[in-house]
Every structure is written in structure tokens, then in C-alpha cells.
Amino acid sequence: MSDNIKAATQEYATRLGDDAVVLGHRISEWVSRGPFLEEDIAYANVALDYIGRARMFYGYAAELANDGRTEDDFAYMRDDRQYQNLLLMEMPRGDFAYSQVRQLFIDIYYNLLLPELVNSKDDTLAAIAAKAIKETRYHLRRSRDWVLRLGDGTEESHHRAQAAVDSLWGYTHELFDMDETEKLLADNGIGVDTTQLREAWLKHVSAILSEATLSVPEDGWAVRGGRIGYHTENLGHVLTEMQFVHRSYPGCQW
Amino acid sequence: MSTEQQLSRQEQQFMDKIKAEEKIEPKDWMPEKYRKNLIRQISQHAHSEVIGMQPEGNFLTRAPSLRRKAILLSKIQDEAGHGLYLYSAAETLGITREELIEALQSGQAKYASIFNYPALTWADMGAIGWLVDGAAIVNQVSLQRTSYGPYSRGMIRICKEESFHQRQGYDIMLSLVNGSPEQKAMAQDALNRFYWPALMMFGPHDSESAHSAKSMEWKIKRETNDDLRQKFIDQTASQIEFLGLEHPDKDLKWNEERGHYDSGEIDWEEFQNVINGNGHCNRQRLEHHIKAHEEGAWVREALAAYNAKKQANKSEAA
Ligand SMILES: [Fe+2]
Ligand SMILES: [Fe+2]
Ligand SMILES: [Fe+2]
Fold first, then answer.
1. What number of other Cβ atoms are within 10 A of residue B318's Cβ?
2. How far is the CA of B273 from the CAs of A126, B136, B199, B203, B276, in angstroms?
3. What SS3 class is residue A160?
């Protein structure tokens, strides 16, 4: 692996790890707060999948970095300007509709991205993707079912679901942006060209929203910056909470 | 034959089964008090699993490593599963989950008072897994032989997972005592705060226990509070020693003659105090549960409305 490809792959793995750990954090906030016990179980389960994913991506980033850092150094010892997760991941937990709509957007995204990443020339990324696909299929079944139920449930649930779609839409555009790092990897058959996924994503999302009697927002509003560490104010608080114990006892094993 | 004779014959058959160690199943005749007693115990157990998610959930977002975070998530997921499984077992006795939750939220039904103690540091995740799940296992192993079939089978299934939890909790403690002086102090502090409340989990002394005698006769309970507590004290003593921590019970002493540890007296006043609502988290735990339940009301309504629409569409199509 050439040095620049290696550096780019490390950054890519770190980004995907950041996405997973931040979303996993948000989902874990639901545990013991779901609308009924089965949902607490489901939330714990999905959060666990994402934390597992973060560990795999960070573990690989650490392996490539080969400078003594571990998965935990990536998760716990970087600040918000260094984190490169998509903004959508860090948005607050919100109400149940907000979390399920966010999950639907992300699940459809990963359902398109992971089957591409499975073909990566990088064996480790391909292996992580293969494992994650199965989880994501299950996640999508759940988020899709819930968006249908909420959209086509009661008047209140419909309003809440539509409000969630409207207030999250602006954060979906950067899911399909590519910077130099990702272009280099896509050109070399290692990373996924996400610009190619938007059309299929929009089609899939629109079909589900329309079945749920929800409307697809107009494009135009788009917030960007996650991949360059330009975050909303939410991430700082996520990291403050997540990193507190780890950073309070420097250099300790847990 | 008079109703009375019939009743006593049913009771006789019921007691014969109990004596023969046969399981009572949901469709079998059972005395009303047996049913009530079981509902009380199983639902209390279910509520404990559910409320117990809160103190550990309190550290999900702060777990100091990703590996520990994953293990904690998985444990809490298990506990929720235990709650679900136990609610189902209680439902076989002719009560609904809604009624059970209503009883929890109104304060009519209880949950284990141990969860009214606050989880303050990461070491508490170790102490809870090790001591709280540990005490629960001692009790639940004995309940595997309980006379009610669905409860007994539930316990067999649940015990396997609980012993994982205990080992994982102990493993957290091991990491801490082998770590920095601050980590070791954190472990000692957690042990000091959770040891006595864990002993109280077995309930009052046999002589003081309100429900014990009948529960033993019906083989709902298989061993007495004090016997179970003794087992726990005995097994925990060597575990504390292995960790190199100071034992919180200064009066603990091996009694060669009994083959057990003698121990100091539990502060029953504190036990009653916390049970009666003066623990740090009594109100918080219930308010948390009620808040989540109320915030979820519109979701449950949406689910019901959606299902009703689908049902209506189906019957229209048919
Ligand atoms: Fe449990
Ligand atoms: Fe438990
Ligand atoms: Fe447990």
C-alpha cells in the first residue's frame, strides 16, 4: 500500500468509526426510555451494533497508524474539531419520530454503501462491511416499519414524523459529498463513491415516505461540514460526556 | 359432592403435586393465594430487571472504553429481555402487562430496593454486576426449582445470562484493582457502598419475613432468606480477598464449627429507610419510568391506529 493511500485509508476508517460511535452514543441514550420494553431491547441492540462497528473501524485505523494508539485513543482522545462524523449522526436524540426518521435515512444510506464497500480492494474494510450489512438490513426493517406506522398512524404521530423529516433533511446532503481523500480511495477501488448513491437513496426514501403519507422536502436547505470537523454545537456535548471518565484517569486500563 | 368438598379435593391434588416436585402449569387449578403470591413475586422480579436498567444505563454514555461500553450495552439488553420474559410469565397467571406496569408506577408493586442506590462512578458498574447480579443469582439458582413451571423455566434461562453479568462485573473490579491507586480507591468505594445493600437483597431475617412461611410450603421459595444470604456472604468473602480489597464487614470471621462465615449485623433501619422511600433514587427511578411511559404514549397509540388501519384494509379486501 502506498503511503498516501495508506493515510487516506486510515482517515476513511476513522471517519466511519466516528459515524458509528457518535450514532451509537445517541441511540444508547434511548435505553430505558423507549415507548415500551421491546423498544428498549431494540435500541440497545442497534447501539451495540454501532459500537461494535466503531471498534472495528477504529481498530483498523489504529493498525494502519501503527503508532501505539488503540481504538480507545481514537474514540476518547480526539476533540470535536478532529472528529469527522457526518452531522446527521450527532443531532440530538429528539423524540421517537426524530430518532426513527434519522435511522431510516442512515439505514438506507448504509444499505447502499455497504454492499459497495464489500467489494473494496482493502480486505479489512470489505470484511467489516460484510459483517455490518446483515445488521443494517435488520435496522432498516425496523426503521422502515416505524416510519410507516408513525406516518400513517395518528394525526399526532404523522405531524411528529413529518416534522422530523423536515428538520433532518438539510443534514442528509453531505452524506453524498466526496472530498479528495474519498475520491482517491474511490478511484483506487478502496472506498465508495457516495455521489453515485444519492439517486437510489432518494428513490428509496421517497417511496417509503410516500407510503407513510409523508412528503419529501424540497431540496435547497443543506448543512455541511462533518467531514472537515466543522460540527454543530451538539458534538462537543456528546464528547464531553463520552470522554469524561476516560480522560479523568489518563493512561489507565479499564 | 358439595363445592367445599370439591375445593378441598382440588387443594389436595394441588398439594400432592407440590410435594411430588411436579410443576404447576398455567392451566392447572391453583389456590387463589398461590396465584396472588406468584404474581407479586414474579412481577416484583420483572420490575427489578426493568428498573435495574437505569443505574447501569446511567453509565452507558460514559463507559471508559469501547469494549466496556459494548459489554454494558449487552448486559442491559439482557436485563430488558429478562423483564420481558418475566412479564410474560406473570401474564400466564391472568394479569396483563399494562396492569403490572400500572401497579409499578402507582407504587403498589415493588422492585428490588438495591436500585434505589445511586450509581456514581464507573466502579459501580463493576460492583453492581459482581454483587447485585451475584446476589440475584444465588436467589435465582434456588428459584430454578420453584413450583410454578413458567417461572422455573424462566429462571433456568435467566441464570445463564446472570452468571455472565457477574463475571463481567468482577472483571471490571479486577481491572480497577490492578490499575492506578485512584482506580483501586474507586473500586473500594464501590464495594463499601454496595456490599451491605447487596446483603439486604435477600430480604429480612427469616423470623421477620412476612411472606416466607407460605411461600416455602408452596415451594414458590425453596430456601430461606438467611440461608441464601449466608451462601452469598461465603462466596463473596474469598472474592473480596482475591481483589485485595478491604472487607466492608469488620466482624466477618470464619466459623470452623458451622463451616460458614459469621458476619456483622445488617443495618435494618437503613434497609427500612430506603424501602420506605428515603433512598437517593426512589422517586427518580419511578419518575424516569413514568416519564418514558408517558412520552411513549403517542407512539403506542400510533402503533395501535396503524395496525387497526391495516386490519381494516385486510378485511375490506377479503
Ligand atoms: Fe437480569
Ligand atoms: Fe439483574
Ligand atoms: Fe443481570
1. 5
2. 57, 21, 15, 14, 5
3. helix
| pLDDT over threshold 60, residue B1 | no
* B164 to chain A, closest Cα gap in Å: 17
In this structure, is the dihedral angle defined by the CA atoms of residues A133, A135, A141 and A146, taken in order, positive or negative? negative
Across the range B159-172, mean pLDDT stands at 95
A160 vs B contacts (CB less than 8 Å)? 298
pLDDT, residue B3, reads 64
Kindly state the cell numbers that stand for B78. 439482557
Alpha carbon distances (Å) from A99 to A132, A160, A172, B72, B255: 20, 11, 14, 22, 57
Q: Ligand 2: distance of its center to the CA of B202 in Å?
A: 14
Q: Is residue B212 over pLDDT 80?
A: no
Q: A199 burial class (0-12, 13-18, 19+ CB within 10 angstroms)?
A: exposed
B237 Cα distance to chain centroid:
22
The answer to whether A73 contacts chain B (CB < 8 Å) is no
∠ Cα A201 A204 A207 (to 5°)? 145
Alpha-carbon dihedral of residues A164, A166, A168, A173, nearest 10 degrees?
A: 150
CA A246 to chain centre: 23
Q: Is the model's pLDDT at B4 over the cut of 90?
A: no
Q: Which of A213, A84, A202 is nearest to A161 (CA)?
A: A213
pLDDT, mean over chain A: 98
- Interval B232-258: pLDDT, tens: 999 999 999 999 999 999 999 999 999
User: In chain A, whose CA is at the least distance from the CA of B182?
Assistant: A249
Mean pLDDT of A77-106: 98
Q: Which residues of A touch B178 (CB under 8 A)?
A: 253
If you ran DSSP here, which 8-state letter would residue A91 be given? S
The kind and range of the H/E element at B254 are strand B253-255
- Alpha-carbon gap, residue B114 to B47, rounded angstroms: 12
- The angle at the Cα of A112, spanning A109 to A113, to the nearest 5 degrees, equals 80
Neighbours of A135 (CB within 10 A): 19
Ligand that comes closest to the CA of residue B52: 2
Residue among B53, B180, B299 whose CB faces A35 most closely? B299
- Tell me the pLDDT tens digit for each residue of B118-136: 999 999 999 999 999 999 9
The band of A111, judged by pLDDT with boundaries at 50, 70 and 90, is very high
Q: How far is the CA of A108 from the centre of ligand 2 (A)?
A: 36
